């Protein structure tokens, strides 16, 4: 069974995520991001199926770095916040490794910027571009914003309005691409 996503409004979970990601959330707010949505990402049977050993190990690591919940049937849900910049139609996802910024455009172009080391992507055929450097959140945001502005000056239009469903689709698109690289 694939990973399942669901929005959460559980006040206790929201408070735990806010506390766990306090510094990143505050820095993102200073950059004109606001809380957009909270969601849970459920992996079945500790990630053994369909993600194999890699999924299992990732799930175990996430239990310690993320806000998580283990069910009796060994399903694990990891909870996160999605921040949004309406001015740049950009999502920010703070989590255990750092922050990723996501912006998509009406022609299918999709750019991601991460403030931690992760595989880069430069795929013109799929119009998917991912930039990653271990640097402060503010620096990564400035680089991302400059890329968005450059693409807009070339005639591309940002996808709006922002929604949790859109963010999850973008995140899933990135994950699928990375799984093909393995």
Explain the overall architecture:
With about 180 residues, the protein is an alpha+beta fold. It has one domain (about 5-180). About 35% of the residues lie in helices and about 30% in strands. The protein contains five helices and nine strands. β4 (about 75-85) and β5 form a beta hairpin. The longest helix has 18 residues, at about 165-180.
Oligomer: single chain
Q: Radius of gyration from the CA trace?
A: 16 Å
As a percent range, the share of strand residues is 25-35%
Number of individual domains: 1
Quick one: overall form?
A: globular
Question: What's the layout of helices and strands?
Answer:
Layout: E1 4-7, H1 11-20, H2 22-30, E2 34-43, H3 52-65, E3 67-70, E4 76-85, E5 90-95, E6 98-104, E7 110-114, E8 121-123, E9 128-132, H4 137-153, H5 164-181
Parallel strand pairs: 7-9
Antiparallel strand pairs: 1-2, 2-4, 3-4, 4-5, 5-6, 6-7, 8-9
Write a short abstract of this structure:
Strands 1, 2, 3, 4, 5, 6, 7, 8 and 9 form a nine-stranded mixed sheet that branches. The chain has 182 residues and is α+β, with helices and mostly antiparallel strands. The protein contains five helices and nine strands, in the order βααβαβββββββαα.
Entry keywords:
182 residues, alpha+beta, nine-stranded mixed beta sheet, 9 strands, 37% helix, globular
